[in-house]
Amino acid sequence: MITCSAPGKVYLFGEHAVVYGESAICCAVELRTRVHVEKNDDVIIESSLGTTGPDIKVHPYVTHAIEMIKSLTDLKGVRLKIESDLPVGSGLGSSAAVTVASIQALNHLYNCGLSREDVAKNAHKIEMIVQGNASATDTYVSTMGGVVMMPQRKKLPLLKCPVIIGNTKEFSSTKELVGNVANLRSEFPSVIDPILSNIGQMSMLAEGLIIKNDYMAIGKLMNVNQGLLDAIGVGSSKLWDLVYAARNCGAICAKITGAGGGGCIVAIAEHKDTKGIAKAIEDAGGEAIITKNTEEGVRLESFNG
Ligand code: PMV
Q1: Mean pLDDT of 222-228
Q2: What pLDDT score does 132 carry?
Q3: pLDDT at residue 304 tops 80
Q4: What's residue 149's pLDDT?
Q5: N or C of the chain: less Cβ packing under 10 Å?
């Protein structure tokens, strides 16, 4: 049996704007999806969503990953089991992580010789098939790890502070939210385009601030980014509750991460404030996760036989 894992991610800057070619900064976090694979007579996929054969309704990403590997090698059957620290549909890149970890595990099991670049590219293709439109951000960051500026694919230094996530526990559909932003943009291009471009500008400024470890300035810009995400219609009252709960308890900043509408917020903070912020998020009805960014992308966890 072979096990590979891949991390989830948070957006420090630039979700939605990156769909229109603007810059974004995203970082891999130490919350991982693990995929165990072994050769088998049939295809069996096991996860918290159930046990199925190839099934594009229940396990679309994994089913496409198996199809992709089938096009490279003689894959007849495989047993694939998924375990994840990442809540599904919450802006933490769970779909990218499961796709990347599945491709890499199958790549090792069948000696397909795919490089990490190939894994990232194929995972992005699968996200495009399943979601209709997806930037390469999630799949690239889950494969390569680290803090990454997109679409330039430029690695930046890790943040040396804790990352706190607040989950509203409300499911959000990335496809629907990306569609809503597209509609608003076609109705009011002269209003929405400058907002998206402004978000891209913040990512460009933040690049230098991350290199200088200037968390106060990064935080100010992340809070501005939050305001602009709300302006393009991807906020919600629950998200704002968690944003203010975190900010009022000492977070340097707090904003939506990912598509919005529900899902999660991300806050950065000094070590001494993390527990208080997590408690404030829980008191406001959210689920708090204290984590950190990580340089490690997809990795081989174990290889038995
Ligand atoms: O919520 P997530 O993790 O699916 O992130 C969506 C990020 C968007 O910029 C809104 C879409 C994309 O494909 O980049």
Answers
A1: 98
A2: 78
A3: no
A4: 97
A5: C
Specify whether the CB–CB gap between 25 and 13 falls below 8 A: yes
- Which of these is catalytic: 85, 138, 241, 283? 138
**How many C-beta atoms lie closer than 10 Å to residue 172's C-beta?**
22
What is the CB < 6 Å shell around ligand 1? 15-16, 18-19, 91, 93, 134-135, 137-138, 174, 178, 258-259, 263
User: Who wins on pLDDT, 131 or 157?
Assistant: 157
CB atoms within 10 A of CB 228: 18
Average pLDDT, the chain: 95
DSSP 157: P
Indicate if 41 belongs to the active site. Answer: no
The answer to whether residue 174 scores a pLDDT higher than 90 is no
Check if the beta carbon of residue 73 is closer than 8 Å to that of residue 110: yes
Predicted TM-score (pTM) of this structure: 0.94
Residue reference for tokens 């997806």: 134
The atom of ligand 1 lying closest to the CA of 135 is 13
Map tokens 């998206």 to a residue.
196
What the chain holds in terms of domains, given with CATH numbers, is 2-155 (3.30.230.10), 160-291 (3.30.70.890)
Question: For ligand 1, what atom is nearest to the CA of residue 257?
Answer: 1
